[in-house]
Amino acid sequence: MQGRQAVGRRTVEARSPSAKKETVVVIGVAVLVLAAGLVLAPGPTRGPEALPSGELLPYQRLFSTLPPEDQLRYRELLEGVMEAESLRAESGAWPTVETLITAGIPPFVPNPILKGTLTWAQRGQAPVYNYLGQPNGAGVAWLVLLQESGDRLGKEVPTVADLDEQHHLLSNGEIIHFSVWRRDSAPTDDELIILPMTEGWTQILVAPEGPKKEGNT
Amino acid sequence: MKTWALLLALALPLPAQAAAPLKVGVTLHPYYSWAQNLAGELPIEVRAVLPGDVDAGSYQPRPEDIKRLIDLDVLVINGIGHDDFIHDMVKASGNTRVQIINLNEGVPLIGNRRGGAVNSHTFISFTNAIQQTYTLEKAIGRLRPEWAPALRKNASAYAQRLRAIKQKGTAALVNAPETRVVTVHDGYSYLMQELGLEVAAVVEPAHGLVPSAAELQGLIEVLKKEKLRHVFGEESFPKPLLKVLEDAAGAKVHVISHVATGPYTAPKFEQEMEHNLSVIIQALGHQDRP
C-alpha cells in the first residue's frame, strides 16, 4: 500500500490561464476550426444545398452540375429506362432499340432540340445489359448499365424508401441495378461494358450516395 | 324471412373487398390529372386535398381539408417544398396507415436560379409528368397487384399523349430565333429546358413575393442589357408590374399557366400544358421577328 502511494502520487497545481492567454488560445482554436472547415467544406461540384449529404467517388458526378443539354439528356434517359423496365417486366426480355424507337420513346427517338445525335445499341446477356448511345461525330456518349440482381421483394408491400436511384423495382417484383454513365467521347470498341469506371466513363447521380431516409416516402 | 335473408347476406363472401375503391389523395392539380388518367376505369377514387381555387404556395390548412385525409389509402405528394404542410395535416387526421408516395423521389432536380434549394416545380414538365406517372403506377400496382396490367396500359397511353404534345413544341421551337426568356417565377425551368429554352431571369425575388421597385428596376436593366424580349407571366401576377416591364424594357408579356388553380379535372394538365406550348410557340417559334 505504501509502495503504491510512493510511486503513483504526484502533485500538480492547476491554474486558470490569464485572460490574455485564454484569448490567444480561443482565437487559435477558432482559426484551426475555420481552416479545417475551409479544407473540408463541400466544393462547388456538390450541388444545391437541399441535396442530401454523402460522398462522391472519383468517377461520379452530380446531375445538378451538368450543363443544361446534358441534364435534359439524362432526364430523357430516365424516362426511357422506365419504359424499357416496364417492357422487361412484361416480356422477360429487355426491349431492342428498334422497339423503343417504334414506340416513340426518348432518348432513343432523337430530340430535335438537342445538338448532336446519338446512335443507340442494346447489347448484353444476363445478368448485364447495356444501352449505349454513341455520338454521330464528336460529342458525348451515354451508357445505361442494367444488372439483373436476381433479387425480388418479399410479400410485404415495399415503400419507395426501400429503394434508391441505383436500384429500380420492376412491376413483377424484380430489383434491377441501374446506373447512367457519361463519356466525353465514344468508346473505342464494341465490347459489353461491365465496369464503366475503368474505361473513362463518369457515373451521373441525382444525389450523393448516403444513408437512406426514414419514413415511408 | 327478412332475418334469414340478412343472415344469408352476411354469410356470403364479400365482394366489397375486391371492389372497394382505393382512395388516393393528391396535393397538387397536376397530380390529380395524372392519378385520374392512371386510374381510368379502375375503382380508384382520386381526391384533392386542397380546395381548387387555392394555390398550394399560399395555402393554409383548414379542418375541413384535414377531414379529407382520414380514410385515404394513398397520399401523393410533392415532398420537396410545395406541400410541406401536408405532414402536419396527416398527423392531425389520425390516419396512420396512409401510404405516402413522394413523386420526386429519384427525380433529377434542377437548382433554383437564385441558388440555394432545388426547384420544386417538377410538375410543370412533360418528362417529369411521364416519369412520375410511372412512379405512381408502380406504387399503386404494388398495393393492388391485380390492377398492374391495367395501370401499365393507362400509364403508357397517357405517356404517349404527353409525348405527342411535347413533340409539337420541340418541333416548332427547334429553330427559334430567341431562346432566352424571362419568367415571373422560377416554376418553368423544367419545361423550358425540355423546349431548348433558357430562363435568363426571373421577376419574383422568391416564389410568391412581388419585387420591390429597386428589384424591378434592376430587372429592367437586365432585360435591356441582355436583349430579353419575352416575359412569360401568369393571370394572377399583378398586371401593373408586367406593364412596367413592357413599357420600360420593351418586353412582350405572354400569359401561361402554372397548372395550380381551378377545378380538378383529368384533362387539366394536358389542356393547360398544351395551351402553354401554343403560347410559347406563338411568341418564339416564328422567324419573322426583328
Give a structural overview.
The complex is a heterodimer of chains A (217) and B (290). With 217 residues, chain A is α+β, with helices and mostly antiparallel strands. Chain A has a domain at 60-205. Chain A has 4 helices and 7 strands. Chain A starts with a helix and ends in a 12-residue tail after the last strand. Chain B has 290 residues and is α/β, with parallel strands linked by helices. Helices cover 44% and strands 12% of the residues of chain B. Chain B contains 11 helices and 8 strands. Chain B has helices at 2-11, 16-19, 29-39, 63-67, 86-93, 126-143, 148-173, 189-194, 213-225, 239-249, 268-284, and strands spanning 22-26, 44-48, 74-77, 99-102, 180-183, 198-202, 230-233, 252-255. Chain B has a 4-stranded parallel sheet with strand order 2-1-3-4, with helices on one face. A 4-stranded parallel sheet of chain B has the order 6-5-7-8, sandwiched between helices. The chains are: A alpha+beta (217), B alpha/beta (290). The A-B interface holds A 47-51, 63-64, 68, 71-72, 74-76, 78-79, 82-83, 86, 90, 104, 106, 111-114, 157-161, 164-165, 169, 171, 206, 215-217 and B 77, 79-80, 99-102, 105-112, 115-118, 127-128, 130-131, 134-135, 137-139, 141-143, 148, 152, 156, 159-160, 163, 167, 170-171, 173-174, 193-196, 198.
